[in-house]
Write a structure and sequence with these properties.
transmembrane helix; about 65% helix; 16 helices; 2 domains; mainly alpha; globular; single chain; about 475 residues; membrane
């Protein structure tokens, strides 16, 4: 009998219990009292009680911190992947039930409540796949479907941070009663575009630190992918920023022309992303688009002083990101894809563009009409507000870099060294990773598999294995 089986059994039973609790939560009806909500409002005037604050704290910890950590630990096949995911899942289910027990502030029918069951279905699916893989059912039919279970478990695990981000945004919107009726369109624009800038900054950081090998394999430059997304996004904005059939207003015209310049510039960026020999070539078109977008947004007309200054700072931040990208390509990297052949040790200046994009995203998400009116009524000045949003951006970018470091910035390219490519065991319990795209539970294979040499075996040498 495998020495891992007692521990695997406890993990499996724990997973089954968590999944059962999640399913019970989905099946359980919940009455939302709305008798104190005034007509036309999304929330009552009651304060948020301690139970709801506890729900926010627990879910923020589980979905915002532990699940992303567990995802990265799974990619690097760390022994800590399963314990972290079990703790996160337990907290998520606990927080779900606590959220149904709150008193105080009441909420009208809202997107956060409607999306919650889908989030729990994602969690339950991930638990089911995880438990199945831990049971090591590898004979007959199970042997044929195991690779599909591994694939599904990995895909869902990587979707969890995105789903969590959306649900946390829904939670904040619901808590304040925002983005209803006529405000919905503006909210969608701000939160989608703001999230896109943050995602852009995170992806640039990932490619800069651990994605250079992947980028070389594609035979494309970074600007090819940037320009493709810019062109596609511009096409969407060109036809969605104005309600066709109605009179044009000043903001509609600005938003539509901004979409036009995006797809025009994106097409040029795609063309310039290769040289005459068909080799990948860097260009400045995405940097120019970012700069021009920032310039346009800095002059966006607003009715409130705090709104105008917040949009201006958002525009300046984007302009700074565009200038930083230009300086990085022309003067820091001198048209090279990275500072070194293996992508290690980037220049300090290379962190500026991704961070500024993240900061711009938070500034834009925090500049909706309802948020500006609330802050103006509370006599909050734009300087304090901008500094607060920048503080959030610093923490977000810190967490992003911590996760990338956890992934193993100094080990992802270690396979180039034959002495480490076969799977060195490190002091922190991680092993070197064969490929960025791999995603598997740590130690999901049995002892018999470890003793059998094959391409799917974990990257831990037999003599270095610990139990």
């Amino acid at each position: 009998m495998s020495r891992h089986q007692p521990w695997q059994g406890r993990i499996a039973l724990g997973g089954i219990w968590i999944a059962a609790c999640a399913f019970a939560g989905l099946a359980r009806s919940h009455d939302h009292h709305m008798d104190k909500i005034e007509e036309g409002q999304g929330v009552s005037a009651d304060p948020i009680d301690s139970i709801l604050w506890t729900h926010i704290f627990i879910q923020g910890l589980a979905w915002g911190i532990l699940f992303p950590m567990g995802m990265v630990l799974g990619i690097v096949r760390s022994r800590w992947h399963v314990p972290v995911q079990v703790v996160a899942s337990t907290l998520a289910v606990l927080g779900y039930f606590i959220g149904h027990k709150h008193k105080g502030r009441q909420f009208a029918d809202n997107v956060h409540a409607h999306f919650a069951p889908w989030v729990m279905w994602v969690l339950m699916s991930q638990i089911v796949f995880g438990v199945y893989l831990r049971l090591h059912l590898e004979r007959g039919f199970h042997g044929r479907i195991r690779k599909y279970a591994v694939f599904a478990h990995g895909i869902i695990g990587k979707l969890v941070p995105i789903v969590a981000w959306v649900q946390m945004l829904f939670g904040g919107i619901t808590m304040l009663g925002f983005c209803r009726d006529d405000h919905l369109g503006q909210c969608l624009a701000h939160f989608i575009m703001g999230s896109a800038f943050i995602a852009y900054g995170i992806l640039l950081t990932i490619v800069m630190l651990v994605g250079q090998a992947w980028l070389r394999r594609t035979g494309r430059s970074q600007e090819f992918f940037d320009s493709a997304v810019i062109a596609a996004w511009g096409c969407v904005n060109t036809f969605t920023e104005h309600r066709w059939g109605q009179a044009w207003v000043h903001n509609d015209l600005q938003h539509t022309t901004m979409g036009i310049i995006w797809w025009c510039a994106g097409l040029l960026g795609l063309w310039l992303s290769r040289n005459r020999d068909g080799q990948p070539k860097r260009n400045l078109i995405p940097a120019a688009v970012i700069f021009l977008t920032g310039w346009a947004m800095s002059a966006h007309p607003q009715t409130l002083m705090i709104s105008a200054m917040t949009h201006t700072m958002f525009g300046y931040t984007l302009m700074a990101a565009g200038v930083s990208r230009l300086v990085e390509i022309c003067f820091v990297l001198k048209d090279q894809p990275t500072a070194s052949e293996d992508g290690r040790n980037p220049f300090s200046f290379q962190y500026m563009t991704p961070f500024l994009l993240c900061a711009a995203g938070f500034l834009f998400m925090g500049a909706t009409e309802e948020q500006m009116k609330m802050l103006d009524a509370a006599h909050v000045d734009h300087v304090s507000y901008v500094l607060l949003l920048y503080s959030v951006a610093f923490l977000m970018y810190l967490f992003t870099n911590m996760l990338i470091h956890l992934y193993g910035v100094d080990r992802i390219l270690a396979k180039a060294d034959p002495e480490t490519a076969n799977g060195t065991v490190y002091a922190n319990g991680h092993t070197s990773v064969r490929d960025v795209e791999e995603f598997e539970l740590g130690d999901i294979t049995s002892d018999d598999e470890l003793d059998t040499p094959n391409d799917d075996a974990p990257l831990v040498p037999k003599e270095g294995r610990t139990h």
